[in-house]
Write a structure and sequence with these properties.
There is one protein chain. The chain has a domain at 1-7 and 40-74. Helix content is 12%, strand content 41%. It has one helix and six strands; from the N terminus they run βαβββββ. The longest helix is centred in the first third of the chain and has 9 residues, at 18-26. The chain starts with 8 loop residues before the first strand and ends in a 5-residue tail after the last strand. Bound molecules: zinc ion (ZN).
Length: 74
């Protein structure tokens, strides 16, 4: 019954409004750079455990950056 709880469901980032896409691409936090809003490239969106994640690469260092969206923001 909990078998699928951890499964990752792919979502289409590009189905979002252009403005929304821009906002997500700009509003990032990079652990590696320890900086906000450095921006990301190559976004991939998915849902896991009732949370939406947008994962991309930091434009500053090229390391993966992940934005988490809670229920209320989608
Ligand atoms: Zn970075």
């Amino acid at each position: 019954m909990t078998m699928t709880d951890d499964s990752r469901v792919e979502r289409d980032f590009y189905a979002r409004d252009a403005e929304e896409q821009q906002a997500f691409l700009q509003q990032t936090w990079c652990d590696h750079c320890q900086g906000v809003d450095l921006g990301m490239t190559d976004p991939v969106e998915y849902e896991q455990k009732h949370t939406i994640f947008i994962e991309g690469r930091c434009t500053g260092c090229g390391q993966p950056v992940i934005t988490e969206l809670t229920d209320e923001s989608f």
